[in-house]
Amino acid sequence: MTSEAPGHCQCSCGEVEFPTPADPLFRMVCHCTICQRFNEATYADVVVYSAKNVQAPPAGKVTFDTYRPPPNVQRGRCGHCGKPALEVLAVPMLPNLVMIPRDNFPADAVLPDPSAHIFYESRVADAADAAPKYEGYWRSQLAFGRCLFTSLFRS
Ligand SMILES: [Zn+2]
Ligand SMILES: [Zn+2]
After folding, report:
1. Domain residues for 109?
2. Element (H, E) at 137
């Protein structure tokens, strides 16, 4: 077990693999129906990075879709296995963010615990952890923003 940030991530088939050399900002579990659909799972467990700290995969390897603007989230799947590879979030006035599914990192990667569960009202099942749970669009958006600001000003 190492205490270093995970240096790279990859989709389930390995076709989309890219470096994540810096520490992530935070980790978040989203229970919204779009994340459920995108991940073909009951929720999305994502690790959030500043876009400048991620070397995005070459164009053409990832197929991007916008499910619903705003917020402006581009959700990218691997063109080969079709599994989620990364999501790019552009927020006005803030650094662009990249969200990567937790499962795209090695099982033993050292990652932060989830800071919050958002859109908890659409959950398929209760979460067992102690992270705060937020329901509703605006409360969930605010919780995301608070995690972002806390992590940006932590250092
Ligand atoms: Zn793949
Ligand atoms: Zn979501």
Report:
1. 8-152
2. helix 137-152
